[in-house]
Amino acid sequence: MNKQQANPAFLQLIEQNRGIIFKICNSYCASKNDREDLAQEIIYQLWKSGNNFDGNYKFTTWMYRIALNVAISFYRKTAKNSATVSLSEGDIDIEDKTGEGYETEENFRLLQQAVNELKELDRALMILYLEAKSYREIAEVTGLTETNVATRINRIKDKLKQKLLTVNK
Amino acid sequence: MEDIELQKIWAEYDRKLEESRVLNLQSWALNLKSFEAIQMQKAKTKLNRLASFKIGAVVLGIVWVLFLSFLIFNRLTWQGIIFNISAGMIVLITAIAIIVYIKHVVLIRQIDNSENIVDTQRKLALLQSSTIRIIGILWLQLPFYATFFLTPSMLYNWSMWQWLIVISVTGLFTIAALWLYKNISYKNKNKKWFRVLFNSTEWTSVTRAMFFLDEIEEFKKNN
Q: Complex ipTM, two decimals?
């Protein structure tokens, strides 16, 4: 085991950015067990690739690359006939079913569902967009050009908006 | 909802993740012993399994090549000439397949998840789908299985009918082998005969990888 990779500072960095792993696991896995397996796989790959961390990129860029690559491969391995990931057991519970927060909660659930229904590569793109990453960073993570990133995101965004509007009517 | 702020809605995620216990990541990330356990658990990742499969195929291929080479060297006579040519061609084709497989194993070792998504996923899908290409190469051996048992003395003494049968079978095998070599390819994955041939479960991941390659190409297009 590489001492440098396993040091608390490296783990602290992963811990600080654990939201990335959470969201990616939720977007690519339907069951709680799969999510846990995927999270372990991602952490293992992060730990394993610690030596390859390129200081020219942000830590989060490097982390997104690994997490999304592992998630897409995992999804392709585990997905049977279903092309999408539905929300199911172990998804985040929405406790507030009434009141002002309800619409936001519902929109969040619908958005999560809509993202999970995208193709795996578009899903990666959209997660990065929703995480408010710049087109440049998205391009670095995905390997697309910035122009292509912008074009594709606009197209997917329109579809998602349309979907949310239809459901909310 | 006239103006949906997708990013604003998504931001709800962070709050919810703090509150929920969807994944007990914190305890893993802060526990070095867990990391060691994960390392053990994940020793056999999908890529390692793919590499193991290909290494297994290389070992089997080498055993087959050594066995045939042994037979060739033990029949270095005029009577064994047709056998030697046939077995020699089978050795050659198997050796090509072995080299391709070794190349794949090297490529598997070079796959780096910290590279960008398009490049990494493309390499992975190419590796999976290239198994089909090996099958195409191996089919080239087919005609030689129709000739290895022949000897010059048999040919001298054969009747026209016997000649006709051997020529027909060998010719048919040659046409079939060349056709399969040419057509067992990623480009024909949508053809009905291809889907029938590679319909079984062991080919699912390979055929799926082929379709994923298309998705990657589509994803890369700037239109």
A: 0.82
